[in-house]
Amino acid sequence: MKPWVSIITPIYNGIEFLEQCALSVCLQNVKNDLTELTWEWWIGVTGHGDGGEVLNMARIVAKKCGDAGTIHVVNLTTRGKVDSLNALAVKCSGEWIAVLDCDDTWERNKLIYQKLAIDKSPKIDVIGTFCRYFGDMISNGPKLPRGFIRSGDFWSSNPIINSSVLIRREMALWQDKFGLEDYDLWLRLADSGAVFFNVPEYLVNHRIHEGSAFNGKGKQDVAGLLSYHLFKGSISSKK
Questions:
Q1: What is the reported pLDDT for 197?
Q2: Beta pairing partners, 53
Q3: Hey, which end of the chain has fewer CB within 10 Å, N or C?
């Protein structure tokens, strides 16, 4: 039977955080009185030749999850996060794809809450949640729109937390734009009329550390990305 959601996690660095990440996946509640779900997880090691010790460590972590779900650990020949995400997405069989960075974690009801929202509003195409920061910084994450996301919300900041997102599998195609492959994808999908939604619950924990994207902002050009989409005549910034 095909899983309802396929989780994808590319790993270049951060393998030391994977066990905590995996525990949060394997302890997901997958059934309540209203709905239930099944999942698979694709973990892809990239940038390490034949995979080496990173691949071995990822396989050890996966085995600790037992039969909580179906977990695939593969070595990718890709280089870079965008190509790795796309390579993993091709392998997925779920109706939905969830992105999870290896240094982040989920709360136990993360997937079931999103499944409930989708069951209630089947027109949703992309769904996120609120998040908290932990690690080198402990706080609530950025202020995000709740419920259905309007076109204008995309122009003040990225309204979807990457490790919170579920996206319809056929829409999952990332491009390497301005170091912001996720934000670029949301803008492209919003331009095509996709429906976005945020569950207003803190269901994702985003780790802040020296190697995290949070501290790599020099490679992320938000102004350049927004200017690029404005020039293309993308979604209206006034709605």
A1: 98
A2: none
A3: N
Are 186 and 160 in contact by the 8 Å Cβ rule? The answer is: yes
Q: Which residues of 16-33 are buried (b: 16+ CB within 10 A; e: fewer)?
A: ebbbebbebbbebebeee
What's the pLDDT score for residue 237? 53
* pLDDT number for residue 215: 40
Helix 181-191, helix 81-91: angle, nearest 10: 60
d(C-alpha 191, C-alpha 193), whole Å: 5
List, for residues 214-236, the tens digit of each pLDDT value: 344 457 899 999 999 987 765 55
Burial 206-236 (b: 16+ CB within 10 A, else e): bbbeeebbbeeeeebeeeebbeebeeeebbe
Listed in sequence order, the residues at least 6 apart from 121 whose beta carbon sits closer than 8 Å to its beta carbon are: 195, 197
Q: What is the CA radius of gyration of the chain?
A: 17
Query: Long-range pairs for 149-153 at CB < 8 Å and ≥24 separation?
Result: 149/196, 149/197, 149/198, 150/239, 151/190, 151/235, 151/236, 151/237, 151/239, 152/236, 152/237, 152/238, 152/239
Q: What is the pLDDT of residues 48-63, one digit of tens each?
A: 888 899 999 999 999 9
**What is the CATH number that goes with domain 5-231?**
3.90.550.10
Report the residue count for the chain. Answer: 239
Structure tokens at 26: 């394997």
Provide the whole-model pTM.
Answer: 0.93
Average pLDDT, integer, range 132-141: 90
> Could you state, in order of their start, the residue ranges of all structural domains in the chain?
5-231
